[in-house]
Amino acid sequence: MKTNLSVFKVFQHGDEFFEMLGNSEFARKNVIRQVLFILLFTLLYGLVMGSYNGFLQSMVAGLKIPCLIFLSLLICFPALFVIQYMIGSTMTLWQMANIILSGFVVFSTIALSFAPIVVFFMITSENYAFLKLLHVAIFAFSGVFTIRTIIRGLSYSCEKKNIYPKLGMSIFKIWIFIFAFVSSQLAWNLRPFVGSRDLPFELFRVRESNFYVAVIQSAADLFDPGTDAAPASHVTSPN
Fold first, then answer.
1. Within 10 Å of residue 161's Cβ, how many Cβ atoms?
2. Which end of the chain, C or N, has fewer beta carbons within 10 A?
3. Weakest-pLDDT range from 37-51, 170-184, 185-199
4. CA angle at residue 238 from 233 to 239, to 5 degrees?
5. How many Å apart are CA 81 and CA 58, to the nearest integer?
6. What confidence score (pLDDT) does residue 224 get?
7. What whole-number distance in Å separates Cα of residue 122 and Cα of residue 200?
8. Average pLDDT of the residues in 21-25
């Protein structure tokens, strides 16, 4: 049990956690543990997210959220690892994967902790635009702590272990923006997540517009109750 909980050392004992990654056996096993925790927590959050529009949408959203996280990582992680290696990083694949995944353990844990608040607003509000923006805000808030955790791990590897170049910190910050664009575009293609009650169930929506336009449109709908039930506003929603 203590070994499994080592995944959460990153919350309050980050230096101890990052030091443990020097053990190759621990690093390999911990990747699997982190993947399982992220999968479980994002699955649960997705179930809550989609429950606004019924059981079927809840099941689909429960699968889509983990897919969104892991597909985004699979698309973006290889470029990060190769570039870091080329500029002098001596971190192993397992060490780098652990540091990146530790950030998403934080992300999924924080996001799931907001589930009771999401349920409260689903019960007390019928404003679809507000719920969409609430989920975007939760993801953004959780993402801040994700970046903070990963930067802490990379800084530890650079300053105390001397296995990560300082230039890599700047490259990582660029990578974060790339990851954000990839994940938002992927989320747009995987929508709907919440699902509008005014539209029939759809596994995927027709490709149109983009994520950023949809967020702006949802913000506009939030202050215009008359458009809340209009199907046209939901067709271009990211959720």
1. 15
2. N
3. 185-199
4. 90
5. 35
6. 67
7. 19
8. 88
Residue type, 224: D
Structure tokens at 151: 């930067």
The pLDDT value given to residue 95: 93
Q: Which two tokens stand for residue 41?
A: 């927590």
Q: Using CA atoms, how far apart are residues 76 and 69, in angstroms rounded to an integer?
A: 11
Of 42, 213, 29, 3, the residue nearest 135 (C-alpha):
42
Structure tokens at 204: 């995927």
**Could you check whether the bond before residue 192 is cis, i.e. omega within 30 degrees of 0?**
yes
Please check whether residue 77 is in contact with residue 100, taking contact to mean a CB–CB distance below 8 angstroms.
yes
189 phi/psi in degrees, rounded to 5: -75, -25
**Cβ atoms of residues 124 and 167 within 8 Å:** no
